[in-house]
Amino acid sequence: MMMAATDEFKDQANSADMMEPGFAESARVLLESIPAEDPNRNGLARTPERFAKAMCFLLQGYNQNVTDVLSPEAIFDDDHKEPIIVKDINVFSLCEHHLLPFYGKVHVAYIPRDGKIVGLSKLARLAEMYARRLQVQERLTRQIANDLEETLCPLGLGVIVECTHLCMSMRGVRSVDSTTVTSVRRGCYEKDDELWRDFWGQVVQGQGNKSIEPLLSGKSSNSSFDSSSCVDNMPVVCSCCSGSDQRQDFINSPKSVETSKADDYRLYTKCSHEEFNKMAQIIKDSCFGQIADKGFSLLDIGAGTGHVLKKLMSPTVDLVPSRYVAFEPDADALEDLNKMLQSTDCKVPYYKTINHCFDSSVSVKDVSGPFDVVLLSHVLYSFSDMQATELFQHCLKFVAEGGVLLVFHHYSSEKLDVLRNYMVEKQIMFHQEDYSVEVDVAALTPWEKSRIEAYTKSKSSQGNFINRNFVFIAIEPFNCHPLQGEKMRRAIQERKVSYASRSIVPSAVCMPSSVVGIQACLRAASEQKYEFNSISVIGGGHSANCIGQDALAVDMRYWKKVEVYPKEMVVCAGGGATCGKITRAAETEGLLVPLGDRPGVGIGLILAGGINHYMRKFGLAIDNIIRLVYVSPCGQLLVAEGEEQLMRFRGAGSNFGVVLEVMLRAHPIGTITKQCVQYSFHEWCSTSNILGSYSSYAVGRELSESIDSFLFYKADELVFATSHFHLAEKDEQCYFVEGSLFLDHPCLKSLTRNAVMSHLMPSELYDLEFYMTEPFYMQSATTKVYPKGCKLRSVKRCLFFQTLQGKIETELIKSMKSVPTMWCYLHILHGGGKVKEVAPCSTSFCAREWNFAVVITGRWPDGDEILHSQTNAWMKLTTDGLIPYTVGIYSTDLGPGDYQLTHLAYEKHNLICLGELKRKHDPQMLLRHSCPLINQSESSIADSLGQSRGVVIIVGGKRHSGKDWLGNIIKAQLGNLLGEQGKSLVNMVSISEGTKLAYAKEVGLDGDLLLRSRKYKEQHRSGLSQFYKKKKALDTAFDRKCFVELVQKYSNGGILIVTGMRDGLDYAKLLSGRPTLFVLLKSDDESKTRRGWNGYIEGIDDTIGEMLDQFVCPNLVYSNDRKSTTAKASSWVTKELAPAIVKACIRKIKNVPKPGIIYRDIIGGLLVQPFGVSLVTSLITSHLATSLKEDHIDAVLAPEALGFSLAGQIASVFCLPLILARKVKPVFGYFHETSSTGSNMSNLSKSSEETNNKHNFYMQQTILPGQRVLVVDDCIATGATLDALAQLVSSQGGSIVKLVTLMEMVHPELNGSRMALERGIGVFSLTSFEGK
């Protein structure tokens, strides 16, 4: 679509009243700026006025528009059908780059259409109107042609402009004789070279031998394809280039000077294979699942030459549409598309191409729609915002149920913002993603490269590649709608989820049937523009974690497909398939998959571990996972395969993505034989060693055998039952004999034995309601009768044990004798075997050294809240009693509130590793309703059991407060404290590093220079800011990802200083995974002004980043005012910041050593840090170096045990003898001895009857009379240890004069420091904590 040239300057023309005073004032300023010149001398006094009048004349074209020149009165009707040529129209203009004149001639030729001609003088007036503006010659040529074409609609039109540019003649290259020629050809002048030659000949008569040939091969087009990326290309012939290599390339180019957009597009397609490959891959990913399975139909709007379709049909993508309809308005491009479709290589069975623009006049019926995929490929550029929105709405009508709409567009276009705002307003959930591709131009000629650069509006990097950035938006219009209210409740009931799940109220339920729908759900949660900010997944009907409070529940009901591959012995199951469906599908092919024991549970249980009755022979379900297809929390469709990628999914998969498909290893079915036996107890029996005998019997069985057991109540009597079964290989005989499976124990009586059942199929075992144990039925397991319609509700915990003997059996029997209802029971699954053969660190499920999984189940009648509360209390009491003996806990029953049990589900190293992976892959914690890997309820990450090594220090403050200055001082001073070897452990980085490097790559800048040079950064600040805003708009987790990436990249177990962080302090501690300190830098206006601050700026200084002190509570504050110096800041680091680092590294662990106590863990928190001992030693020795000038010290005394780790280095620094006070009596030799009432922690750990027990300190070294002693210990609380040491030292004639500790406990009942001061002992503690 051609547009009037006046549109380019509409705003200028509307406000172009030239103000003489403004020009005059500018001229005066200019004259005053000329050295050694007097603006008031006679020749210059009136120059500003003369200059103003001259400029008003030279720029008067801004006061005119095309309707003034080519008015209707200037258009006449005449029969003339031959060319009309007006040549040698003089024009004078100003170059917009240098404000220097260029002048020359304009030649115009046109062939009237329908006898419509224009007054000849109007051609000259039109040329003058545009010349009397700031111009470039290329645009001047185009503007004249565009207005004439729009006004006259001639059959043919040609415009040639020849000018001399003083900016080339009198400056720069100073090429006095050069002339620039530009031209535009339209209509028959474009198509007929002879006609164009004739016009050229008329122009050049009398001008020497100017060749027409360079201007013949270029042809322009009216095609509007990709108008955002294309430009109007016009010939530019400079006579100064004659004879050079550049001129020769210009002339010999197959498309020299002027080319059509269609030609440029064809050239572009030859070197943009990566772009079309990427588009094809995105389409394939979007079709994964139902769309691709059924053979999809594709509506391609803006198909071009069919390169995307060609890539879809390529062997690497292999996605052939069953029905294909294409809209393409360019006839030449459509011809190429048809040739491809008609070729023998094309695999599309049905296709239709339409040489027309897709618009609202096209109906679904016209194209035999709807379609599974509707593709809008770069077609919105020429549309207004309203037109683009209307086209988008119209396209939605063509999407079939379960289908998707995909929109591809250039990254920088504002059209996407319009569409996004529309979708948010209409509450249409959508997915979007940006991507970059490289256009390979290395093989092109210089002229072809210039064409591609003009077409893409980009510069090539080192002449080889052009980096292009795109965005695609994807929508699933039908199934991806949040259901709320009654619809939501019905959807949850249909899924038959657990009772615990139904008691949780989500914000909404969504049932996506495509990858796009799931991606849209995740994005909607991440943007927090809806009523939910997290996701839970309903796969099967097992765990309460499938529904999260106020979350969006993603119902996977459309992802139930199961495919069995007998030859490969694998099964592929959809993310919504249940264990029962997978089992039944596999057994039809003679295969077995080791899954969970309940047919209704889904993939979520498999990802948690998948305990099953075949695990002794085939391992857990997770051990049989070969491959996973999932959507990550960030919305990417990914595949996990290989041990490293699968590690996090094998045991903690629900934390890392929405699983769409899982590939499982299957095994041949042999003969499954089983027998159930039920026992009761003699009245006189105490039920002792029943479980012990059972466990001894079970552990000795073959791997093909499994024997489960139950403890439950029947007729008010405690019953013990076993379910023994054998899995034989094919053609292997089962050795079960009727009555042979019997536990011979004197306490057991009333034997009831079921007949041996042979040749069972796996699915038949599911028909027995409670885990294959026939005697255990709901109606016979209790004497109480259910009210009609009443159901039992349940809560579960599963713990792992190596044996069931001794205290474990005692706790289990005690638990069963204290049940709140007779419906509570224990189910013991027989494990070991292959489960133990997997290395604990190779999967997230690291509890491997167990033989029995004890499932504790509490049940109560629905609606009885009293029994509900009592059952929960019983469950907690039972679990707490068993935890000291367990080797692990099953994560599947743990939810967001069970973080304190997480360390039992995942071994500590695994928990740290999983926590880091969780922060990296799900920085917004969208999937947070399964077993938690990160403690989100604590205010400090140092409280986490999964703490990583290292410390993060965030330096924040307002503009020009000196953040980088302070960061450098912190780095230098901490390096000094840690010594030469420790300096490498301190790093400093800007939060914007990742953004800067990404921006530099996109636009071809020097990334290292952008990081190092403030001047270089300021030069590109505007572009960098725009890039950052776009990234944030496209990815709401962008800031979080940048922060996590930097922390995990640079922390390295050391101290990382992060500067420039203005937002995100609310999540920094959570995502760092390490102790994190926030240092707020304050500075007065005067000090900031000296650093370049130019006052308050609205829109910058009122942002959250500039008002941090109002929104966050810093750990430390540094005042960088006029009195601040490097020395003062260094001292502040030593005295304030370094001790704060020490304190932050001391972890607090709740309920250790017993409930109600918080243990301050120095060894597991501070001393495991690579810098821990060095930093503490340096701070203590720094303090002592000053204090020892006044207090003379003769020896260093350290009590066992933590004092040992620090005292040795301190004694070494000051060359003092080290004396150790041990708690263990020496085996030989002389020693000094004293007793102690025990430390604060040891007393808190004891029971009430043990509190008065004392322990002794023993010292083998001798203290000489009169020696002054320094005591180094970890903590001072009650002062009991110091009191004992004081007695030990004074008994030998010495005295303690100083006590140095890492921490002091501050509490009214703790008098340690006061006691020391009363005895004249100086106390120095690096940190202090309140409490006992």
Describe the protein in words.
This protein has 48 helices and 48 strands. The protein is of the alpha/beta class and 1332 residues long. The strands form eleven sheets. Strands 26, 27, 28, 29, 30, 31, 32, 33 and 34 form a nine-stranded antiparallel β-sheet that branches. It has a seven-stranded mixed β-sheet with strand order 11-10-9-12-13-15-14. Strands 5-2-3-6-7-8 form a six-stranded mixed β-sheet, sandwiched between helices. Helix 16 packs across helix 17, helix 33 crosses helix 42 and helix 33 crosses helix 44. The longest helix has 20 residues. The N terminus is likely disordered.
Question: Tags for this entry?
Answer:
disordered N terminus, about 25% strand, 48 strands, about 1350 residues, single chain, alpha/beta
Overall, the morphology is flat
Using the CA coordinates, give the radius of gyration: 41 Å
The helix count comes to: 48
Structural class: alpha/beta
Secondary structure: helix percent: 25-40%
* Number of separate strands: 48
Distance between the termini: 80 Å
Poorly predicted segments: 1-19, 208-258, 769-786, 939-943
* Major sheet description: 9 strands, antiparallel
Give the rounded overall mean pLDDT: 81
- Beta strand %: 15-25%
Topology:
Layout (H helix, E strand, L loop, with lengths): L9 H5 L5 H13 L14 H12 L7 H4 L5 E3 L6 E12 L5 E11 L4 E3 L1 H12 L2 E2 L1 H16 L3 E10 H4 L10 E8 H4 L1 H12 L31 E3 L6 H8 L8 H11 L1 H15 L2 H4 L3 E5 L5 H6 L10 E5 L3 H12 L8 E4 L16 E7 L7 H12 L2 E12 L4 H11 L5 E10 L5 H11 L8 E11 L9 H11 L3 H4 L5 E3 L4 H13 L7 E4 L13 E4 L6 E4 L4 E5 L4 H9 L3 E2 L10 H6 L6 H4 L6 E7 L5 E5 L1 H4 L2 H4 L5 E8 L1 E2 L2 E11 L8 H10 L5 E10 L2 E12 L19 E6 L3 E4 L1 H5 L25 E10 L5 H11 L7 E6 L21 E10 L3 H18 L5 E2 L12 H4 L2 H14 L29 E7 L5 H20 L3 E5 L2 H11 L3 H6 L1 H6 L1 H14 L3 H13 L4 E5 L5 H8 L3 E7 L2 H6 L17 H4 L4 E4 ...
Parallel strand pairs: 2-5, 9-10, 9-12, 10-11, 12-13, 16-18, 17-18, 35-37, 35-38, 36-37, 38-39, 42-43, 42-46, 46-47, 47-48
Antiparallel strand pairs: 1-4, 2-3, 3-6, 6-7, 7-8, 13-15, 14-15, 19-20, 20-24, 21-25, 22-23, 22-24, 26-28, 26-29, 26-30, 27-28, 27-32, 31-33, 31-34, 32-33, 40-41, 44-45
